[in-house]
Amino acid sequence: SCMMTLTRGVRAHYPCPVCLVPLLNLSDLSTNYPLRTTESMKEIYERACLLSAEKAEDLLKLHGLRKVPNVFWEIERSDPYHAVSWDRLHAFLIGLFDHLLGRLIEHIDRLPGRQARQAKIIVDEVYVRNRCFDYS
After folding, report:
1. Residues 8 and 73 in one domain
2. What are the φ/ψ torsions at residue 7 (nearest 5 degrees)?
3. Could you tell me if residue 68 is left (phi over 0), alpha (psi between -120 and 50 degrees) or otherwise beta?
4. Domain that holds residue 41
5. pTM, rounded to two decimals
6. Sign of CA pseudo-dihedral 128, 129, 134, 136
7. Cα 66–Cα 126–Cα 84 angle in degrees, nearest 5
8. What is the pLDDT of residues 64-81, one digit of tens each?
9. Tally of domains within the chain
């Protein structure tokens, strides 16, 4: 979702790609927060482009945005903030893949020597690229 909406992600002050709920209020389900829209986020981005680098960064952080134009803003009748949905596999800090990775390693360990070594190299490369799994 963060990739499609170009929001800052789970550690941002406003991590939700759909609305402007503050990080510290994520568990407060009794409050409705303003929804992100293409118009409102594009306006903030455009305002940031007129500011100094430091002030632009401050403004963007206040809305959980990055200083990157979203290509979906230019597609008519498109709103990436309304299009994204909750995804169980990726919704948590390391997703739900951690238990699947252990099973994958078990299957790799059953492969013949050379195939197992090659598969482990690939898994290690993915791990280094993503740095989010702990399968030790």
Report:
1. yes
2. -90, 170
3. beta
4. 2-83
5. 0.60
6. negative
7. 40
8. 998 988 888 888 888 888
9. 2
